Sequence to fold (147 residues):
Amino acid sequence: MAKHEKHNKHKLVKSLQNVSNIAYMAQLDEDRWLLEFVEGAFKSDEAWFLKTADGEEFVALPQQALHNLLGHLQHHNEEKFLILLRYEIRELMPIDLEDTMAVAIHEFQAYKEAHGNIQDINVKTFAKNIKTTHPNLFLHFDRLFKH
Fold:
Protein backbone atom coordinates (compact mmCIF):
# COMPACT_ATOMS: atom_id res chain seq x y z
CA MET A 1 0.00 0.00 0.00
CA ALA A 2 2.80 2.44 0.86
CA LYS A 3 4.41 1.74 -2.51
CA HIS A 4 1.10 2.49 -4.24
CA GLU A 5 0.79 5.82 -2.35
CA LYS A 6 4.38 6.73 -3.26
CA HIS A 7 3.66 5.93 -6.91
CA ASN A 8 0.56 8.15 -6.81
CA LYS A 9 2.56 11.02 -5.25
CA HIS A 10 5.11 10.76 -8.04
CA LYS A 11 2.34 10.81 -10.66
CA LEU A 12 0.81 13.89 -9.01
CA VAL A 13 4.14 15.74 -8.87
CA LYS A 14 4.91 14.78 -12.45
CA SER A 15 1.49 16.03 -13.60
CA LEU A 16 2.11 19.35 -11.83
CA GLN A 17 5.50 19.73 -13.50
CA ASN A 18 4.39 18.66 -16.97
CA VAL A 19 1.03 20.46 -16.98
CA SER A 20 -0.21 17.30 -18.63
CA ASN A 21 -3.97 17.49 -18.06
CA ILE A 22 -5.44 20.66 -19.55
CA ALA A 23 -9.14 21.33 -19.88
CA TYR A 24 -11.21 24.31 -20.92
CA MET A 25 -14.18 25.21 -18.74
CA ALA A 26 -17.36 26.65 -20.19
CA GLN A 27 -20.38 27.61 -18.12
CA LEU A 28 -23.53 25.88 -19.32
CA ASP A 29 -25.84 27.56 -16.81
CA GLU A 30 -25.68 28.92 -13.27
CA ASP A 31 -24.92 25.54 -11.69
CA ARG A 32 -23.26 23.52 -14.45
CA TRP A 33 -19.91 23.69 -16.16
CA LEU A 34 -18.55 21.75 -19.09
CA LEU A 35 -14.96 20.50 -19.03
CA GLU A 36 -13.33 19.70 -22.33
CA PHE A 37 -9.90 18.14 -22.04
CA VAL A 38 -7.62 19.36 -24.80
CA GLU A 39 -4.58 17.55 -23.44
CA GLY A 40 -4.41 14.56 -21.12
CA ALA A 41 -7.52 13.30 -19.34
CA PHE A 42 -9.41 13.31 -16.08
CA LYS A 43 -7.22 11.22 -13.76
CA SER A 44 -8.01 10.85 -10.07
CA ASP A 45 -4.34 10.80 -9.01
CA GLU A 46 -3.09 13.75 -11.08
CA ALA A 47 -3.60 17.50 -11.16
CA TRP A 48 -5.86 19.16 -13.73
CA PHE A 49 -5.27 22.59 -15.20
CA LEU A 50 -8.51 24.35 -16.02
CA LYS A 51 -8.92 27.47 -18.17
CA THR A 52 -12.03 29.56 -18.62
CA ALA A 53 -13.06 31.55 -21.68
CA ASP A 54 -12.17 34.71 -19.68
CA GLY A 55 -8.58 33.51 -19.40
CA GLU A 56 -8.77 32.60 -15.70
CA GLU A 57 -6.71 29.55 -14.78
CA PHE A 58 -7.27 27.04 -12.00
CA VAL A 59 -5.49 23.95 -10.75
CA ALA A 60 -7.58 21.13 -9.32
CA LEU A 61 -5.93 18.60 -7.03
CA PRO A 62 -7.19 15.38 -5.50
CA GLN A 63 -8.40 16.12 -1.96
CA GLN A 64 -5.83 13.82 -0.33
CA ALA A 65 -3.00 15.57 -2.19
CA LEU A 66 -4.18 18.97 -0.95
CA HIS A 67 -4.51 17.59 2.58
CA ASN A 68 -0.94 16.22 2.41
CA LEU A 69 0.37 19.51 1.03
CA LEU A 70 -1.24 21.51 3.84
CA GLY A 71 0.13 19.03 6.39
CA HIS A 72 3.66 19.49 5.01
CA LEU A 73 3.31 23.28 5.13
CA GLN A 74 2.09 23.14 8.74
CA HIS A 75 4.99 20.86 9.70
CA HIS A 76 7.46 23.20 7.97
CA ASN A 77 6.01 26.22 9.80
CA GLU A 78 6.31 24.43 13.14
CA GLU A 79 9.94 23.47 12.48
CA LYS A 80 10.77 27.04 11.48
CA PHE A 81 9.05 28.39 14.59
CA LEU A 82 10.98 26.01 16.87
CA ILE A 83 14.30 26.97 15.26
CA LEU A 84 13.54 30.67 15.77
CA LEU A 85 12.30 29.96 19.31
CA ARG A 86 15.57 28.20 20.17
CA TYR A 87 17.49 31.27 18.99
CA GLU A 88 15.29 33.68 20.98
CA ILE A 89 15.51 31.56 24.14
CA ARG A 90 19.27 31.35 23.80
CA GLU A 91 19.37 35.17 23.68
CA LEU A 92 17.51 35.27 27.02
CA MET A 93 20.34 33.29 28.68
CA PRO A 94 18.80 30.05 29.90
CA ILE A 95 20.62 28.02 32.55
CA ASP A 96 20.22 24.86 30.46
CA LEU A 97 19.07 25.39 26.86
CA GLU A 98 17.78 21.83 26.38
CA ASP A 99 15.70 21.89 29.59
CA THR A 100 14.30 25.28 28.64
CA MET A 101 13.49 24.08 25.12
CA ALA A 102 11.67 21.06 26.55
CA VAL A 103 9.45 23.41 28.56
CA ALA A 104 9.05 25.73 25.56
CA ILE A 105 8.00 22.83 23.31
CA HIS A 106 5.47 21.74 25.93
CA GLU A 107 4.08 25.31 26.06
CA PHE A 108 4.06 25.44 22.26
CA GLN A 109 2.09 22.17 22.02
CA ALA A 110 -0.43 23.49 24.57
CA TYR A 111 -0.80 26.73 22.60
CA LYS A 112 -1.20 24.81 19.35
CA GLU A 113 -3.92 22.57 20.82
CA ALA A 114 -5.79 25.57 22.21
CA HIS A 115 -5.48 27.88 19.20
CA GLY A 116 -4.49 25.72 16.22
CA ASN A 117 -3.02 28.55 14.17
CA ILE A 118 0.68 29.08 14.88
CA GLN A 119 1.19 31.75 12.21
CA ASP A 120 -0.04 34.38 14.66
CA ILE A 121 2.61 33.67 17.32
CA ASN A 122 5.31 36.30 17.79
CA VAL A 123 8.46 34.29 18.54
CA LYS A 124 10.12 36.98 20.68
CA THR A 125 7.00 37.47 22.77
CA PHE A 126 6.54 33.72 23.16
CA ALA A 127 10.16 33.32 24.37
CA LYS A 128 9.79 36.23 26.81
CA ASN A 129 6.59 34.66 28.17
CA ILE A 130 8.52 31.44 28.79
CA LYS A 131 11.08 33.44 30.78
CA THR A 132 8.33 35.22 32.71
CA THR A 133 6.35 32.09 33.57
CA HIS A 134 9.44 29.93 34.23
CA PRO A 135 12.04 32.30 35.72
CA ASN A 136 13.90 29.41 37.34
CA LEU A 137 15.10 28.31 33.87
CA PHE A 138 17.02 31.53 33.18
CA LEU A 139 19.97 33.46 34.55
CA HIS A 140 18.99 36.82 36.05
CA PHE A 141 22.01 39.10 36.08
CA ASP A 142 19.83 42.09 36.95
CA ARG A 143 19.07 40.44 40.32
CA LEU A 144 22.73 39.64 40.95
CA PHE A 145 23.93 43.21 40.53
CA LYS A 146 21.02 44.83 42.40
CA HIS A 147 22.55 44.21 45.81
User: Anything to note?
Assistant: Helices lie at 2-18, 63-91, 97-115, 123-133, 141-144. The chain has a mean pLDDT of 86. DSSP finds five helices and four strands in the chain.
